[in-house]
Amino acid sequence: MAKALELPAPSGTVPSKEGSLRWLLTLGLLTLLSAAIGGGFGLVMVSGIEKQVEEKYKALPQKAEVASPYTGSITLKKLAPVVTNLAGSESDWVRLEASIVFKPGDEQNPDVLVSETRQDILSYIRTMSLAQIQGPSGLLHLREDLNERARLRSKGAIQELVLETLIVQ
C-alpha cells in the first residue's frame, strides 16, 4: 500500500478557523461603521428639516383669535315645543323643540319675541313636505331657513335659533 503524500500548505495561507474569524471581525467592523455613518447622516438630515419647518412656521402670519358671537350679554330662551303635521299628509307629524339666543335689553319683550318666533316656525313647518327635511342636508336647510326667518321676524334681535330636537313620525 502506498502512503498518501501530504502536501505542505502554500505559504501565506492561514488555517480555516483563523481565516473565518478575521472574516467575521471584518464584517462586524464594517457593520458598525455603516451604522455610525447612517445614524450621523440621519441626525444631520433631521436637524436640517427641523430648521426649515421652524423657518416656514415663523414666516406664516399668526392667526388672530376668533371672537365668539356669544360674548357680552346674551340670553337663551326655550320655546314651547312645536307639534304639527306636514304639508300634503295627515299621517306625518313633526315635533320640534328649539331655543333662541338673543340680546336682552332690546325694545322687544322676550316673551312676545318667543311667541312670535314659535308661531313663525309652526307656519313654516306646515308648508314643508317629508322629503324636504329628510337627511343631513334637509336638516341643515331647515335650520338655515328657520334662523333666517327668526332674524327677520325679530329685526336682528335673535342671533340664532338652536334646534334641540326634531322628531318626525
Automatic annotation (TrEMBL):
Main location: membrane
Annotated InterPro entries: FliL
Single biological process term from Gene Ontology: chemotaxis
Entry's Gene Ontology cellular component terms: bacterial-type flagellum basal body; plasma membrane
Membrane disposition: Single-pass membrane protein
Transmembrane segment boundaries: 20-46
Compartments in which it is found: Cell inner membrane; Cell membrane
Pfam families per record: FliL (PF03748)
Keyword terms: Cell inner membrane, Cell membrane, Cell projection, Chemotaxis, Cilium, Flagellar rotation, Flagellum, Membrane, Transmembrane, Transmembrane helix
Record function comment: Controls the rotational direction of flagella during chemotaxis.
Family: Belongs to the FliL family.
Protein name (Swiss-Prot/TrEMBL): Flagellar protein FliL
